[in-house]
Amino acid sequence: MYTRIEKFSSELFYAIFDYLYNEDIYFAFSGLNLRLNIIVLRMNKPYFSFTKYSPTKFYNFWINYMPLIKHEVVALKFLGRQVDLKHIFFTGFDCLTSLVLEDINCHQAEYVITENLSKLKRLSIRRLFAGYYENKNVMIASLLQLIFLHLTNLQELIILPADNENLFYDEQTILSTKNHLKTLTIHLCYIDNAFSILQYLPYIQHVNFTFSSYYRTSVPQTTYVIPTLAILNIYSVKNPCFDFVKYSFKCCPNLKEFTNNGVQMTVCN
What we know:
This protein is α/β, with parallel strands linked by helices. It has a domain at about 1-45. About 25% of the residues lie in helices and about 25% in strands. The protein contains nine helices and twelve strands. Strands 1-2-3-4-6-8-9-10-11-12 form a ten-stranded mixed beta sheet. A two-stranded parallel sheet has the order 5-7. Helix 6 (about 105-115) runs parallel beside helix 7 (about 140-150). The longest helix has 10 residues, at about 55-65. This is F-box domain-containing protein. It comes from Didymodactylos carnosus.
């Protein structure tokens, strides 16, 4: 006695789907028959990761399957070295709130930011590099300008460099203040005054700064007041001086938690 897969109950299919990646489900089951098409389209797993597929397989999915479900997708993850994101359009992703870009060059990231992603709430850019034929210094000022200009509903932002890459920010850059960012995690090589970025974030609450090179430990001349910041974590090769700790609390009068290299800093009157 045998049973054809087409006769499986819908509940059994959904139990099987719990062990598979979303994109694999579409590749394996879509197009077999009308009933399976309906079951696949009704599954409540609206997030997709395209980090393990060849360009051919990815474009096959993106062209043939994604138009059917893109209005329900809430999270996407791409690997920039495998897919040229300049050929990807995000029109119609009305529910997309989370986007992860890994192993991506700065030009690709800037292109994606200018797409129709106004509802995005979480953006993670990991292993960012300058370009395939450029030096190892990544200037991210223009990238931040585009993020704060186009992604006005963004609440969480993560920017981390690729191995052996250095991220730099030009402190003379003017950023848009029409953003709602609450959490920022960023790894820079060096910056003279990290608060120069935070002055453009009117709703910022939680910041994680990591510095791979020397971070200024003396007190900067300019004071940027960040009244909304409650949590500040700094990881650097040098511990700050006592005056810099006082300066940090002066910039952030409502700071509740301040750690440097994992060490809790106390409020200084």
